[in-house]
Amino acid sequence: MDEPNPGAEWPERDPEAAAAPGEPPSDGPDTPPEEPAGPRPLGVAVTPTGHPEVDGRLARLGDADHLAVGGHLAVYEDVHRGLRTTLASLDQQPGPRPGAPNDNRS
Questions:
Q1: With left for phi above 0 and alpha for psi between -120 and 50, is residue 22 left, alpha or beta?
Q2: Whole-prediction pTM value?
Q3: Closest C-alpha among 39, 35, 36 to residue 66
Q4: CA 49 to CA 77: how far, in whole Å?
């Protein structure tokens, strides 16, 4: 088996030669990587429904705009749970249901 040649190493990388045309050369390994952009709002408009509970839940979706992606799920689940509760409460309200036949037997 051949022994590796200690003098044959990878050539040192020239930062100026590695830069793409039109890009400034990298300062090398001592330069910290650029910080990723922080969370940015999507700018999706929410039209008010006129139902305060639903509008409050939908407004809560805006909280996800200020969180990293990993935090979105908790907000979405919370909003979904709240909307389901609100929807279920509509079935619990007393009074005649819209569209139900009126039973006025005398």
A1: left
A2: 0.49
A3: 39
A4: 20
Query: 36-43 long-range CB contacts below 8 Å, 24 or more apart?
Result: 39/65, 39/66, 39/67, 39/68, 39/69, 40/65, 41/65, 41/66
**Contact in structure between 79 and 61 (CB atoms under 8 Å):** yes
Helix (H) or strand (E) holding 16: helix 15-18
Residue 89 phi, psi dihedral angles, 5° rounding: -70, -25
Tokens representing 105 are: 């037997």
Give the torsion through C-alpha atoms of 39, 40, 41, 43, to 10 deg: -160
- pLDDT tens, position by position, for the chain (106 residues)? 555 565 556 556 555 555 555 655 555 566 666 766 666 777 778 889 999 999 999 999 888 888 888 999 999 999 999 999 999 988 876 766 666 666 565 5
